[in-house]
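Run log // design_07
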C-alpha cells in the first residue's frame, strides 16, 4: 500500500475514486444498528483511503422520526416492512440521527482526507441506501455529476453494509456508467433473510467486480 501512495502511481489513478460507505458508530458494534464485525474493517478501509487519489464518504443522516424507523409506525417492529409510495421499505431501529454520536464516523477512520461527504437519508419521508439515489431510484444525491466533473470513470466501494448501502451504491454506479468494484474484505454485511447472498449475486450479474 505504501507504493500505491507514490505520486506517479496516484497520477496514473487520477480517474479512480474510492467511495467509503457509512462507516459510522451506529453501524459498528455497540451502535443502534450494529453490523457484526463492522469495526474490524476500519484498518483495511484506512489502507484503501491512504492509497486512493480521490476519496468520497457517505454518511447516513436521518432526522428524528424518520419514516424508515420502526418507532415511527405504531405496531411495527424493526426489520418488518411497510409499503411506501416508492415501494417496500424495511423498518430499522432508530439510527444515525442528525447530530448524534451514532451518526459520527468511527473514531479510528481516517476520513479527513475525503474530498466530499455525501449525506443521505435526510429527507424525512424517504430512505436512502445508495450513494447515488434515494430509495425511489429517481431522486439523485448529486454524486454521479460530481464524479463526472472530476473526470472519474472508475469507482471502488467499501464499508457498511455489504448487502444494503454498499450493494445498492454499486448497482447504481454501474447503471450510471462507472467501472465499479467492491472490496469485500473491507465490507461487512447484515444478511437479513438471505440478503447477503442475494445482493452479492445481483452485483456480480450487473458487472460489479467483486474483490
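design_07 sequence
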Amino acid at each position: 500500500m505504501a507504493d500505491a501512495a507514490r505520486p506517479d502511481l496516484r497520477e496514473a489513478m487520477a480517474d479512480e475514486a474510492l467511495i467509503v460507505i457509512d462507516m459510522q458508530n451506529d453501524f459498528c458494534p455497540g451502535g443502534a444498528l450494529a453490523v457484526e464485525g463492522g469495526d474490524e474493517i476500519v484498518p483495511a478501509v484506512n489502507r484503501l483511503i491512504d492509497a486512493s487519489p480521490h476519496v468520497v464518504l457517505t454518511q447516513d443522516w436521518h432526522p428524528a422520526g424518520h419514516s424508515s424507523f420502526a418507532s415511527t409506525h405504531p405496531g411495527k417492529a424493526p426489520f418488518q416492512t411497510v409499503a411506501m409510495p416508492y415501494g417496500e421499505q424495511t423498518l430499522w431501529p432508530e439510527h444515525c440521527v442528525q447530530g448524534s454520536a451514532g451518526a459520527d464516523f468511527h473514531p479510528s477512520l481516517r476520513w479527513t482526507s475525503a474530498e466530499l461527504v455525501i449525506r443521505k437519508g435526510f429527507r424525512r419521508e424517504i430512505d436512502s441506501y445508495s450513494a447515488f439515489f434515494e430509495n425511489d431510484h429517481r431522486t439523485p444525491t448529486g454524486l454521479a455529476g460530481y464524479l463526472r466533473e472530476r473526470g472519474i470513470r472508475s469507482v471502488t466501494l467499501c464499508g457498511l453494509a455489504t448487502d444494503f448501502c454498499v450493494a445498492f451504491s454499486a448497482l447504481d454506479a454501474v447503471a450510471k456508467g462507472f467501472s465499479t468494484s467492491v472490496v469485500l474484505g473491507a465490507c461487512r454485511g447484515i444478511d437479513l433473510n438471505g440478503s447477503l447472498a442475494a445482493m452479492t449475486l445481483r452485483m456480480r450479474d450487473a458487472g460489479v467486480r467483486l474483490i
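The longest strand covers residues 179-188.
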